[in-house]
Amino acid sequence: MSSPESPASGRRKVTVRRAPKYVPFLILGALLGFAVAAILAYAVPGNESYDAATVFGFFLVPCAAGGAVLGAVVALVLDRLSIRRAEHAVVEPVEDSVPETGTENGGAFDGGTGSGPRS
Question: Mean pLDDT across the stretch 98-107?
Answer without folding.
Answer: 60
